Amino acid sequence: MDTDSRDSEVRNTPDPSTPGGFGIGPAYQVGRVRAHRIVEWNGQLFTRGQVFADVDRVEWAAQKSWLEPRFWSSETDGVTLTIQSFLLEYEGTRILIDTGIGNGKDRPAVPPFHQLDTPFLDQLATAGAAPEDVDIVVLTHLHSDHVGWNTRFDGHSWVPTFPNARYLIPRTEFDFWNPDGGPNQGSADEDQALVFADSIAPVVAAGQAELWEGPLTLTTGTDLAISLDVVPGHTPGSAVLTVSSGSDSAMFVGDLLSTPMMVGHPDMCAKFGDHWVDDNLDQVRAARRDLLGRAVRLGARLVPAHFNTDAGIFVSRDTTGFAMSDGVRPSHT
Ligand SMILES: [Zn+2]
Questions:
Q1: Hey, what domains does the chain have and what are their CATH numbers?
Q2: 3-state SS, residue 161
Q3: How many whole angstroms from 6 Cα to the centroid of ligand 1?
Q4: Which among 194, 178, 37, 207 has a CA at the least distance from the CA of 113?
Q5: Helix boundaries (H) for 30-170
Q6: pLDDT in tens, 110-122
Q7: If you measure from the C-alpha of residue 11 to the centroid of ligand 1, how many angstroms do you get, rounded to a whole number?
Q8: pTM tops 0.85, yes or no
Q9: Cα of 143 to ligand 1 centre, how many Å?
């Protein structure tokens, strides 16, 4: 990859119509913190009818002026799935939030992610962080699409990709997925045991995993605070990272919201066949409403893990509940 093509990719917004599309989003500021998204994979893996059937296609079609083409195709009913990480930089510190699918991982349950091969690390370097520059890896939860680049294969074994990083893992989440005694050993997701073995255990073995119980303050000062809280629902130990700097704030919420339609329909949940994706439906719905309300009150940016937006979203109240704003959803006059 030459320098010119890297430069063009800096400005590249991945095209949701291109399966496997990747790139990095433009940098934006949350007060003193500079943020980037690094997209590992972008495409339409499932249809709305397969995963979000509890909101009728007619309702999606009524919203298509802003859903299409970024989030949904009215023609195919396909929903965009964006797998991405977020790089935060402040005062020489670099935090990477979630680590995608990873290269070369055995993921037979999801064929498009099996033995994936993408230039994710090149993209991350273009955004400003070589592997050795990452100081902190924050994992919102331990699903297979959030932890893959924790490790890379060095020819012999899986080793931490970020040799100087502390990997922050919610203790509840770690215990839940831990095959040695965790309640979810032999999970409904057949890939999760593989995930733990190739993407979590090597980080623990290297002494780089830090199991935390919230709330956890990463940094605090007169005009900058970064903290982690456990907000269970999607998984038992899911975490939210909050940045507050000056009058700006942002909440990186993992999979508490998994489609922009959830902003206007906070009770909808994803389901594959008979299997709900969220661990606890009542809990995740309450958490989602609480989060949306907090985002409105604070004027905070929300950055869900899988939204195909360069810089998250803002949320406002409308007559029936919540709505997306700030250029992603056109003002609904
Ligand atoms: Zn996810």
A1: 3-325 (3.60.15.10)
A2: coil
A3: 27
A4: 194
A5: 48-51, 57-62, 64-67, 120-126
A6: 888 999 999 999 9
A7: 25
A8: yes
A9: 6
Nearest Cα to Cα of residue 11 among 2, 23, 21, 1: 23
**What average pLDDT does the chain have?**
88
Single-letter amino acid code for the residue at 161 = T
- What number of other Cβ atoms are within 10 A of residue 8's Cβ? 10
Question: What is the DSSP-derived secondary structure letter of residue 98?
Answer: -
Q: Are 16 and 42 in contact (CB under 8 A)?
A: yes
Contact present, 187 and 206 (Cβ < 8 Å): no
| pLDDT value of position 222 | 83
Query: How large a percentage of the chain has pLDDT more than 70?
Result: 88
Helix, coil or strand: residue 251 = strand
Strand, coil or helix: 296? helix
Expressed in angstroms and rounded, the spacing between residue 223 Cα and the centre of ligand 1 is 31
Return the amino acid letter for 109. A
Please name the residue that has the structure tokens 């994979």.
41
